[in-house]
Backbone:
């Protein structure tokens, strides 16, 4: 058992050669996640036809994201000026369009689809800049992420992509997602499910297993809601469960 635990620790945790650099890279990923959640919260407002409480929640989260972004650009702007300028430019565009959409929702309960599409396009551009910045930080410092970190991020990204497609459908007057591509939401769900099952088969700590079981339980609700297009749309519960899963994905690492 001791040997197994030693192997798991060596597999998941590699002592960073440059802890501060990895911390900077982590802040990039955290900002990326926050930006994705901000769009989801906006879609939730649109789905609930401008619920004032949800509007305030979007605005509060935007302030948090703006603060994260400012700290990141202050820390990394000198070393990565072109990349951080791109992030700021796309954030300004996204922010302006978000204001426009919220104003339209407050006035008429539903925004112009074209403006929503432009806002999502600006968000995607910012996320791409953040991903490139992350890659550049790791490459220039010859660093790699631990396997556990990669797993956590993959699971978070899969979860947020599934929820985005679901909440888009809830926010659309035609009941169809705004994202049009060749990716089947069922395939994304299968990938998330495999990620949880794989981790459950590899860890032995009881608390880690308990967290994974809770993730799986909440995930089953999201998966059912996301893949059954005939089911009643329940964005509030899907958003709440997604938030719980994001926290528990972090908790798993603390108990391995």
Residues:
């Amino acid at each position: 058992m001791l040997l197994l635990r030693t192997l798991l620790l060596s597999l998941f945790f590699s002592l960073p050669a440059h802890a501060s650099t990895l911390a900077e890279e982590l802040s990039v990923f955290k900002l990326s996640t926050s930006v994705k959640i901000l769009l989801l919260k906006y879609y939730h407002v649109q789905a609930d036809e401008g619920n004032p409480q949800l509007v305030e929640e979007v605005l509060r989260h935007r302030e948090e994201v703006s603060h994260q972004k400012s700290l990141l650009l202050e820390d990394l702007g000198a070393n990565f000026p072109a990349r951080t300028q791109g992030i700021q430019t796309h954030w300004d565009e996204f922010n302006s369009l978000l204001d426009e959409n919220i104003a339209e929702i407050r006035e008429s309960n539903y925004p112009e689809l074209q403006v929503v599409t432009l806002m999502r396009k600006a968000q995607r551009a910012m996320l791409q800049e953040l991903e490139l910045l992350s890659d550049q930080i790791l490459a220039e410092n010859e660093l790699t992420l631990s396997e556990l970190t990669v797993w956590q991020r993959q699971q978070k990204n899969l979860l947020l992509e599934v929820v985005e497609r679901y909440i888009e459908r809830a926010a659309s007057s035609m009941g169809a997602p705004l994202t049009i591509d060749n990716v089947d939401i069922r395939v994304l769900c299968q990938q998330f499910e495999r990620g949880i099952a794989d981790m459950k088969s590899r860890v032995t700590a009881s608390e880690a297993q308990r967290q994974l079981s809770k993730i799986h339980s909440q995930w089953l609700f999201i998966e059912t809601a996301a893949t059954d297009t005939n089911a009643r749309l329940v964005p509030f519960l899907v958003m709440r469960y997604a938030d719980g899963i994001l926290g528990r994905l972090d908790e798993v690492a603390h108990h391995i």
